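lol ok so funny story. i was supposed to be doing the assay writeup but got distracted and ended up predicting the structure for this chain instead. priorities right. anyway since i did it might as well share w the group, maybe its usefull for someone
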Amino acid sequence: MAWGVNSLRLSHKMTIVGSIGVVGLLMVGGTYLVKERISSLEREAAASARSQAFVAMELDKVLLDARRAEKDFIILKRQSTVSVTNRSSRRSTPCSSASLRMGQLTQEVSVSYNQA
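and the output, tada:
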């Protein structure tokens, strides 16, 4: 007696075809879920990159304003430019260490100006 597909009963053949179909659906569903997870991680990374770029742009603006006020102070030697520098350095930015450093620099400039 030969063993093969022809020797199986119809119910066994239907069970095999059904099992292959279920395995195929599970593979397609798993692939979809994995791709969806990867896409969501990429979207989160893109959103994080956009927010970091925004923070960097805002910090650039604050630093440029502070630098402009510092140059005005150096050129004009007016105390009012120090207050502008202080305002720009105290502006709320996510990078507080840069703001704190800018505030320390303006205080040092103010002290050295008063001593001169």
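The CA atoms of residues 10 and 16 lie 10 Å apart. The chain has one domain: 10-115.
back to the writeup now i swear
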